[in-house]
Design goal:
The complex is a heterodimer. Chain A is mainly α. Chain A is built from twelve helices and no strands. By secondary structure, chain B is of the alpha+beta class. In chain B, α1 crosses α2.
Chain lengths: 215, 247
Amino acid sequence: MTTPGARRRSAAPRAQETSGNEGLDDRALVARVTEGDGGALEALYGRYGRPCYSLARRILGDEQLAQDVVQEVFLTLWRDAGRFDPARGVFASWLLSMTHHKAVDAVRREENLRKRRTTADILEDKEVDGPKVHDEVWSTLRRQRVREALATLPDPQREALVLAYFGGYTQREIAGLTDTPLGTVKTRMLAGMHRLKDGLTGLNDSFLDAPGTTL
Amino acid sequence: MNAHDRYDELAVGHALDALEPSDEAEFLAHLPTCAACQTAVSAHRDTLGHFAYAVESVDPPASVLEGIRAGIGASAFPAPVASLADRRSRTVKMRTAMVGVAASVVLVAALAIGLVSATTRNSELKQRDLAFSRAVSSLLTTGAQRVELSPAAGPGKVVAVVHGGQVDLVMSGVPRNANDSTYVLWQQAAGQVSAAGVFDVRSTDLTVVSTGLHVAGADLQQLMITRESGRTAPPSARGAVLYTGTA
């Protein structure tokens, strides 16, 4: 559990939104990145570096590997921002999806990492004692909404989704871990995802892709 | 269960990065042809994006941003190498910088030395080869497999870097495809040939395709490239095999 003091000591200097990037929405910043604007990339890092790192850290359980993943994500964005297609969803989802993909790749490469983490570790839902400054309050509200939505899922559905998303397990591996037929795992994931989507209705507009969001 | 229900399940597994390689290949072949699945994947990713906010929120250490800055700096060298390559190749060098600030500084120095040397020789061909080699090297992370694809009926050269079921293609001198056609990467695995993905070539200079190509990792036997009419992969190759290589 991170204490507020430790959190402040380890905190990175935030990338500043400068060079005319203030107030631009994500799509406009991505457009600037495609033109080689490093300031725009830093602005996007300032908005999404923390959730990307938090996600990678949760999946990998290893801070160094999580740092490598986040660096790779943003350098991939720099290299080929044109891969983001606004017609196919919001930027935050796309970026976090890329973070997830790279973190899962890493966790599968580092099999010993996963062996050290038990299924219980992956399913554990830690509470966080963080400083309740303004942006922390927003983060806490987000966490609460997502956790509440997860809590409404039947246990087998939640287990399947969490093992896949945070554990990096494939459907077949989850079937083996939970001693459940593969077809049942697939069905649970689909049902759980639909229920989760319903539970998070309305969250997208306010929590994802918000212009100028400070995270 | 109707015919599309299976793809509904695969869409969730795909968004979760939880499909087995064979299911992933099947879904990736289906995805470009199905608007419903494209919408579903996008919606699932939006939903899963919220998961990132359910975990303990921790600031990344300063070294991450410093490494990113170093990576950007490593790409800031102008001509001659950068002028040879398209935008993708310019940034491919950045992957090397991911290993950290110190490595990035070494990379910058190496690039600078390389540029001076190349300029002195004034050999564009050598610079092209150098840029090509660097692009391939930067993609060869631990566990990655290099597959050389020899030209069977096409000019230029192609190297595939396979890592964790994903494929990056580094190409030089490969002709652009028309807007009503596409290149298709085919894989032979366990005796079966299937499309690993489609891609466009928009420049005959150094080009890297680093998205949308997936193969069956351990069982991969051979890779082939054809150019096909239309914007999606046909069920089987119709065009001539342009490049081929054994894994």
